[in-house]
Amino acid sequence: MNVNARPRQRVIVRSALSLGGLLILLAGVMGFAHTRAGRPLLALMGRAMRPGSCPLGYDRRVTPAQREEAAAGWAASHRGTWPAAARPALGFALGQTRRADVLSTLAARGVTCAPGAAADLVCHQVPSTALPGAASGPARELWLTFGAREQLLSLVALARDSAPGAISDAFGRVTAQLTDAAGPPTRLAGQEGPTYLAAAPLRQSSAEFRYSNYYALARATNMGNGYLLTEEYRALAD
Amino acid sequence: MSKAISLIAVALSLSAGLACSDDDNKPPASAGPGAALKCASSGKDAFDTYGAPAFVAVNEAIVANVFAELGANGTTNLGDSFTKIGTGMPPSTIDPAPTFKGKLAAFLVYAYGGPTSITYTDGVAYSGLQDMAAAHAGLGISSAQFDYFVANIVVPALASSGVPTADISSCFAPVVIDPAFKASIVGK
Q1: Taking CA atoms, what residue in B is nearest to A147?
Q2: Min Cα separation B46/chain A (Å)
Q3: Contact B77 A156 (CB under 8 A)
Q4: CA distance A42 to chain B (A)
Q5: For a Cys staple, A142 with which of A11, A123, B84, B179, CB 3.0–4.6 Å?
Q6: Could you report the per-residue pLDDT of A84-109, keeping only the tens digit for each?
Q7: Nearest C-alpha of chain A: how many angstroms from B132?
């Protein structure tokens, strides 16, 4: 009995060491694969799933359902008390307009959109005239997010101009339009007018609209080398 | 045999770690670009005006705003660079979230007139001397995403931390709106 015990112990120790070594090797290979030099190896490992992707899925984009769930969490901390009279979003209907509707509406006005590296849909240089419900102003870049049923969840528009008046006036029109359609702003910051905006870099004027079913924000910013108007329109799910 | 496997594994792990540590070997600079700026409220630079606790608050507010934004819109507005933190894909994102936060704080402190390194709230020392181009390599951040980040994440974080408008413009803005700073981040 004692004669057989030592070889058995030796086998167990060797097996454990080998297994431990293999696990460490695997960790090392995975670590190396995530370095610049290891990218070809990563691509090779990911070929069975998606070429060039992380086999562990760290770089996988969130699904529309996951995005809806996350948006619901955000809504809980940004929701107002009363429902908005309407939920304007540059002429699109939050929660209803589908991706195909956006594409066809804008295509009919000569605007093409494409899936962005991060956004669901990105549309560059969209003139106000192409957006049926938009206040007039400089051309916008649109970032659109869609939910699991391809319904529009949120719309962000950025417009830049070198003149403070162009952005300040557009900010005033957007704010007035939102007030008329949705209701009064729930928070105002800064002052309206090109003089205030142009006075110093990173000066801002903003109007926030928090309702129980809707969130909107208009913000004009002096970016130092130009002026930026940000518009955000979000549906808040129940 | 198992010893050899373990050695190879350790060597590979070390090579991975070294390949991803990018920015801590720069020669020290005497002062950050914001050291020469004077806040309207005090006539001193931002770090001397507000001190370390305020910089921690601003840093935490920036990170909170980023995650609130990611929660609301996913990667639509800020891009996917923040969601890559800790993944190592691309290699510039290898730092886990706590390290990222500590490095961001150290950079802000240094950039606005503070010391070249700090010990953050997690008890770890971080250097503020960071190569922005290397830190953003492979992220493909667009000009519009950068603008959105400055206007809708950074400025609200400063304002919500109690920095008055006049100081945001006088002693914080010039660093952020510097075209060279933007160029070191966008399109890398």
Answers
A1: B73
A2: 15
A3: yes
A4: 10
A5: A123
A6: 999 999 999 999 999 999 999 999 99
A7: 18
Q: Do A18 and B72 touch (CB under 8 A)?
A: no
In this prediction the pTM is 0.75
Name every residue whose Cβ is closer than 8 Å to that of residue A104 and which is 6 or more positions away in sequence: none
According to DSSP, the residues that pair with B125 across neighbouring strands are B119
Superfamily of domain B34-183: Globins (1.10.490.10)
What gap in Å lies between CA A176 and CA B141, rounded to an integer? Answer: 33
- CA-CA distances (angstroms) from residue B119 to B56, B116, B131, B139? 11, 11, 19, 27
Kindly give, in sequence order, each residue whose CB lies less than 8 Å from that of residue A154, ignoring residues fewer than 6 positions away.
A71, A94, A144, A145, A232, A233, A234, A235, B72, B73, B76
Q: How many CB pairs under 8 A join A and B?
A: 182
Q: Find the range with the poorest average confidence among A2-6, A60-64, A219-223.
A: A2-6
List, edge to edge, every strand of the sheet that includes A121-126: A113-114, A121-126, A140-146, A152-161, A227-235, A214-222, A204-210, A187-189
Q: Across the interface, which of B10, B72, B150 has its CB nearest the CB of A24?
A: B10
**CB of A120 within 8 A of CB of B109?**
no
Enumerate the domain spans of chain B: 34-183
A1: Cβ contacts below 8 Å, ≥ 6 apart: none
Of B166, B158, B172, B180, nearest in space to B57 by CA: B158
ipTM exceeding cut-off 0.90 for this assembly: no
Direct distance between the N- and C-terminal alpha carbons of chain A, in angstroms, rounded to an integer: 72
Residue A224: list chain B partners with CB under 8 A: 173-174, 176-178
A223 contacts B77? CB cut-off 8 A: no
